[in-house]
Amino acid sequence: MVERHDDLVAELRELGDWIATPEPPDLRAAVRARITAPPPPVRVPRRWLAAAAALLVALVIALVPQTRAAVAHAVDGLLRFAGIEVHQGSPEVPPSPSPLPSARPASLDEARRLAKFPVLVPARLGVPERVEVADPGPDGAPRVVSLFYRGGAVRLDAFDGDLDIGFLKTSGDQADWRYVNGGTALYFTKPHAVAYVDRTGRTHRETARLAGPTLIWYSGHVTYRLEGPYAVEEALAIADSLS
Fold it and tell me: What digits encode the pLDDT tens for the residues 86-131?
């Protein structure tokens, strides 16, 4: 058995001398050329470019505090944030503004029962002195629930954030970006005009009035608008205590 094995090995070696085996190709140059060559042009649909540009603007607004205000007022002086429209300029304000459409007093329990969104109370302010519901739908659910404190000097509006526009606010460059519970908020440092836009999109100019310092933020499909505290630190503390 050993001799047969040795003979087979010898025959295979002789056969190898008769087989022409080509040298393996040198691929180093080709690989180096592929690495250093510029990438081919990529055609991107225009709609993708528009979406990417919008996303970039949104990221700049969200991540760069110094750039947010400039970007906010760069497009025709209009900013949309959390269901709010902010325009530059100062519209006329009637001497006796009207209340919100179909506004009426209600208890806190009734407001919570009727509203389709959670009606939260800031622990820092406690139980509201007065509650109002406004702009009800066909089913009676209010679009806006307002809580009043300190004799009406402090007002917290909560409205259905699933709707496009809740308030039309008019301001110059007196807005500042803040954070509430990790989310972006907008703080108006000086008095500004505010008018209500109903669920049909109609602006109620008769409701326009001058509003004091105001903090606006969005959380859990609800847009909140806190008016009254003159110190931004107090406004942020009140917003953070919402529960």
Answer: 776 666 688 888 898 999 999 999 999 999 999 999 999 999 999 9
Residue 111 structure tokens: 């407001």
Q: Are strands 167-170 and 84-87 parallel, antiparallel or unpaired?
A: parallel
Of 138, 151, 147, 162, residue with least CA distance to 110: 147
The distance in angstroms from the start CA to the end CA of the chain is: 91
Separation between Cα atoms, residue 135 and residue 64, nearest integer Å: 37
| Cα 240 to Cα 243: distance, rounded to the nearest angstrom | 9
| Angstrom distance (rounded) from CA 175 to CA 130 | 28
Cα pseudo-dihedral 60, 222, 179, 203, rounded to 10 = 70
Query: Which residues contact residue 81 at a Cβ distance below 8 angstroms, ignoring those fewer than 6 apart?
Result: 72, 184, 186, 216
Which amino acid, 14? Answer: E
pTM equals 0.67
Q: How confident is the model at residue 25 (pLDDT cuts 50, 70, 90)?
A: low
Element (H, E) at 65: helix 65-72
